[in-house]
Amino acid sequence: MIFSYTHRFRGPLKLAVLDLAGTVVDFGSRAPAGAFVELFAREGIRVSEVDVRGPMGMHKRDHIAAICALPAVAAQWQAKRGGAVGDNDIQALYEAFIPMQIEVLPDYTDPVPGAAEAIGALRARGLRIGFTTGYSRDMMNIVLNAAARYGVIADTAVCGTDVPTGRPAPWMALECARRTGIYPPVACIKFGDTIVDVEAGRNAGMWSIGAAISGNMTGLSLADWEALPKNERQGFRAKAKRAMHAVGAHAVIDSVRDLPAIVDRINTIMQKGGGPESEPVS
User: Fold this and answer.
1) 239 is catalytic
2) What confidence score (pLDDT) does residue 1 get?
3) What's the pTM value of the predicted model, to 2 decimals?
4) Residue-wise burial string across 172-210, b where 16 or more C-beta atoms lie within 10 A, e elsewhere
5) Which of 47, 72, 107 is the last residue of a domain?
6) Is the residue at 233 inside a domain?
7) Among residues 76, 107, 138, which one ends one of the domains?
8) Which of 14, 26, 60, 193 is catalytic?
C-alpha cells in the first residue's frame, strides 16, 4: 500500500526566533565588530570593519577562523609569524577575545528601537519567542540580563555552544523550537541581521526574514543612521535587500519594529495554503 502525506500547516505562526546583537539589541551590531578589529590589532594584524562583518553571525570562534582565512589576513600572519594560522592560534585568539568582548558588552545592550513593543505584539498574536546568538553563554547572559530591564525577554535563548554547529547550520533555531515544543518548522519564523541568519532559517525549514538596517548589513550606530540623507539610507537598504534575498530571505525589513506586520502577511499566505517555498513575502 502506498501512503501519501498531503497535509499542509495553515498557521498561524507559533514561534519567532530572533538574533540578539543587531536584531533586538545593539543597533548596528557595534560590540562584536569593534572587538574583532581590536583583537587582531593587538596581534599586529590589520583588519577592517568590512573584513570582520563578513562572517558575522557565526559562533565567535568560527568567526575568528573565517577572518584568519581571508587572504590579506593570512598573508600578514605568515609575514609576522613565519607560518600559516593553525588551530592552536585560532583557539588562542578566541580565548583572548572572550574577556575583550565581555568587557565592552554592557555598553552595547540597549534595545533596537521598537524591540520590546514588537515582541509584545508577537506574543499578542500567540507566538513564543526564542533568541539565538553567536555569543558564548557568559556573553549572552550579560545581554539577556540587561535587555530584560527594557522588557526584551524570550521564552528561551540558545547560543552557539549549546548545539553541535553554529549558523548557518539550523541547530540553534531548531533547538528553540524543541525547547518551546513548537512544530512543524513552517510554524516558525527566523529573523536576523546577517547572511548566516537568513541561511540558518532556510536550512531549518522556517520562514526566514532579514534585518536590513538595524544590524550588520548596514553597521551604523543609530545616531549615524539617523544622520544619513534619505538617498544614502535607501542605498544601504537596497544593498542589504539584494544580498539577503540572494540567499533566500522571504522578506527583508528595516528592523524588528516591522516584524509583526510580516507575521500578519505570512499568516495570510499560510491560510491560503502557501508555505516557505512560496514567492518572497517582500
Assistant:
1) no
2) 46
3) 0.89
4) bbbbbbebbebeebbbbbbbbbbbbbbbbbbbbbbbbbb
5) 107
6) yes
7) 107
8) 60
